[in-house]
Design brief:
By secondary structure, the protein is an alpha/beta fold. It contains 10 helices and 11 strands.
């Protein structure tokens, strides 16, 4: 009997050791609930601009995103700028709801309107500036064609960073989509910054009516004013030097976006 007990004890120790080794070797995965993923794609498809926000997670599963939270922001086709006061209010509300910063302030989510999910220089600089002092953080991007990018950065010990896979986890309970609520959240938080607007410098009355009626309502088709190469050069000339440099940095890594206008800009 003592031999049997000793053998079983050794088996348990071996199993425990193997489990610990597997956990250490297991690569982290950024997971989304179906509802959070649907909301993220909904926001992406609501506009031709970028949209950003924070991933909210459970306390015992910090890489499982259960909601995509927006804050007030100005957006363009190549950038997202959060309002500081809105971010502060969001953090305060989350703390009052009983969440820790690791649950709501570590995963930065945003969309790209083109087909490239690779981060731009602006993305990299923002990630370093805003999340560089955190013990860990994740930058996540989803492009228009569904391509994704996720990088985990950690500052513990010597620090480091690693690209991690992304998936939608259907092995959990999740809420139904709420398009009406998501529309309200979008309209309350997202504003187009016309500095980098590629829809033309003027909107027609029909487009204005479309915006007033709600970006998700109505069936009338409309078309923005044509944006020529001369318009682009004029817009660039009017930009602040820092804004112009940020814009050019974006174009340098967003070849899918540049190709759309290349023939007009270079060969018109």
């Amino acid at each position: 009997m003592d031999y049997v007990k000793a053998a079983k004890s050794r088996e348990r120790k071996i199993a425990m050791k193997n489990k610990q080794v597997n956990q250490r070797n297991q690569k982290p995965v950024l997971r989304f609930s179906p509802t959070a993923w649907a909301k993220l794609l909904f926001m992406r498809d609501a506009t031709d601009n970028e949209v950003g926000g924070f991933g909210i997670t459970e306390a015992d599963d910090l890489l499982f995103v259960t909601d995509f939270a927006l804050v007030k922001q100005k957006v363009t086709a190549v950038s997202v700028s959060f309002e500081d006061e809105s971010v502060a209010d969001f953090f305060e509300d989350q703390v009052e709801a009983g969440r820790s910063p690791q649950q709501f302030g570590r995963i930065w989510l945003h969309t790209h309107p083109g087909n490239s999910s690779e981060p731009s220089m602006t993305d990299e600089n923002t990630f370093t500036r805003v999340f560089g002092s955190c013990d860990w953080a994740i930058m996540f991007i989803v492009a228009q064609d569904g391509r994704t990018f996720a990088r985990l950065r950690f500052n513990a010990g010597p620090g480091g960073e690693v690209k991690i896979p992304v998936c939608v986890d259907y092995n959990c309970e999740f809420d139904a989509a709420d398009f009406e609520l998501w529309t309200q959240q979008y309209k309350a938080n997202v504003t187009e910054d016309t500095i980098f607007s590629f829809a033309g410098k003027e909107k027609t009355a029909k487009v204005q009516q479309e915006n007033e009626a709600g970006i998700f309502g109505g069936t009338d088709e409309f078309q923005a004013a044509a944006f020529s190469g001369e318009d682009l050069l004029e817009e660039l000339d009017m930009m602040h030097p820092a804004e112009r440099q940020a814009f050019m940095d974006e174009l340098a890594v967003r070849s899918d976006f540049w190709d759309e206008y290349e023939s007009e800009v270079l060969y018109e």
